[in-house]
Structures are given as C-alpha cells and as structure tokens.
C-alpha cells in the first residue's frame, strides 16, 4: 500500500523505479558523464595535487556541472538528507573503480570531515556515507583521524579564497596518527569527498596528514569532479 501511495522515484529523472532498483534508474546511471580517470595513469584531477608528493593518484567518478544530472545527485546527498543514496553511490563507485587497481588495499578510508555544527544541521557527513559504501566493497575500515575547524562554506569563493579559507583547518587525533606511525611500513590512506572543484579542502587534509605521518601514501577519490 505504501509503495502505491508513495512510490520510489529516480533521484535524477523522477520516474517511478521498478521493483529492486534503488535510488537511480538504469538509464540515468548510464547517462552520467563518467570521467574514466581511474583508468588513466595521469589525469586532470592528479594535476590539482601536484604540490603534494604524498598524493599518488587522484580521480573523480563523474564530472560535475551546475544544474546537471550530476548536480541533482550531489544536492540530494548533501542537502536533501538522502544518506542511504550516498552509501549506495559510494558502493557503486567502488565496484566500478576497484578493478582498475586505483583503490588498492588501503589501511583506512578517510572521509573529509565536516565542522560539527554543519554536520549537526545536515544530520550526517555525506563524505562519510560515501566512504561506508566504498568500505563494503574493498573491506578497509572507515576512520576519521581529523576534526574540522570552523570555516566559511567554499561554494561561492574563488580558488585563492578557497585555499585561504581551509588552510590549517584540520586537527588530527593523536591516538589515530600514532597507530599509523607504529606500522612497519608507510600507511596507504584513501581520502574520500563528494566533489572536487579546486581541490583546496582535500589538499589541506592531505598536507596535514603528510606532515604528521612520515612516508604516508595518499590516494584521493571523489564522487564528482569539475571539468576545468
């Protein structure tokens, strides 16, 4: 009765979903502008992190543009409260990316943290939900080694302003960092976020980790990336 009164609809096109199809219809999923960056040894996402030698690889799963189908998904998981959609997208992304070897065998999956007030307003961290979906595929634990300090939202800022806005914004939890330092090898950490535009926030987190953990190896995977 509930399915008749309140049918599940695709988050992109709005059509009613068939039985067993969660969140997004097959046609809309196939129509997303996938980047293929995980298949490329060198891509446009990598270039945004050239200044951080600890970042081995970076990639976005599909391209983001305002008012696009990709934007609808980002808005749903970021502002619409659809946490299960975020987890499902993380799982789909990982299933697509894993065969390329991009994810590897990370010691931990690290979602970009939100300031606690922002997370309270949203009810969850969409990057953490994406990380949960990835974890289901690759088996690595989701770990949050950092806290985010208070800063302005990045949405309306220029590239330079974004970098200044998040400079030194993250603080690491000592006991988590010490556990990675105690390994007999450099840890491999997969950083996860919903979208990469200039890469300022991810760069700030990567630099903080690199300064604290000698020899750390970092890979960056985002659901979406701008095509600049």
Descriptive terms for the model:
single chain, 228 residues, alpha/beta, Rossmann fold, two-stranded antiparallel ribbon, 10 helices, 38% helix
Tell me about this structure.
The protein is an alpha/beta fold and 228 residues long. The protein has two domains: 1-31, no CATH class; 32-226, Rossmann fold, CATH 3.40.50. Helices cover 38% and strands 17% of the residues. It has ten helices and six strands, in the order H-H-H-E-H-H-E-H-H-E-H-E-H-E-H-E. It has helices spanning 2-5, 26-31, 44-47, 69-78, 83-97, 116-122, 126-138, 159-165, 174-181, 200-212, and strands at 55-64, 108-111, 146-148, 170-172, 188-196, 217-226. The strands form two sheets. The protein has a four-stranded parallel beta sheet with strand order 1-6-5-2, with helices on both faces. The protein has a two-stranded antiparallel sheet with strand order 3-4. Helix 5 (83-97) packs across helix 7. It is globular and about 50 Å long. The relative contact order is 0.19.
Could you tell me the number of beta strands?
6
> For the largest beta sheet, what order do the strands appear in spatially?
1-6-5-2
Category by helix and strand content: alpha/beta
Shape: globular
The overall pLDDT average reads 91
In percent, how much strand structure appears in the residues?
Answer: 15-25%
Largest sheet, if any? 4 strands, parallel
Highest-level CATH class of the largest domain: Alpha Beta
């Amino acid at each position: 009765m509930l399915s008749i009164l309140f049918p599940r609809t695709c988050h992109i096109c709005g059509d009613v979903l068939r039985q067993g199809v969660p969140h997004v219809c097959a046609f809309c999923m196939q129509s997303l502008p996938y980047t293929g960056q995980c298949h490329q040894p060198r891509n446009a996402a990598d270039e945004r992190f050239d200044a951080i030698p600890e970042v081995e690889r970076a990639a976005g799963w599909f391209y983001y543009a305002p008012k696009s189908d990709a934007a609808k998904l980002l808005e749903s998981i970021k502002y619409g409260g659809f946490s299960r959609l975020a987890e499902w997208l993380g799982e789909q992304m990982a299933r697509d990316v894993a065969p390329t070897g991009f994810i590897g065998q990370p010691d931990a999956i690290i979602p970009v943290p939100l300031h606690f007030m922002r997370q309270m307003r949203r009810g969850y961290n969409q990057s953490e939900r994406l990380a949960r979906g990835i974890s289901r595929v690759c088996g690595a634990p989701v770990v949050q080694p950092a806290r985010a300090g208070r800063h302005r939202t990045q949405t309306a800022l220029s590239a330079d302003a974004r970098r200044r806005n998040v400079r030194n914004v993250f603080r690491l939890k000592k006991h988590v960092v010490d556990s990675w330092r105690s390994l007999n090898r450099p840890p491999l950490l997969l950083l996860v976020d919903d979208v990469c535009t200039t890469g300022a926030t991810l760069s700030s987190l990567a630099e903080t980790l690199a300064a604290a953990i000698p020899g750390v190896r970092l890979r960056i995977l985002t659901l979406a990336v701008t095509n600049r």
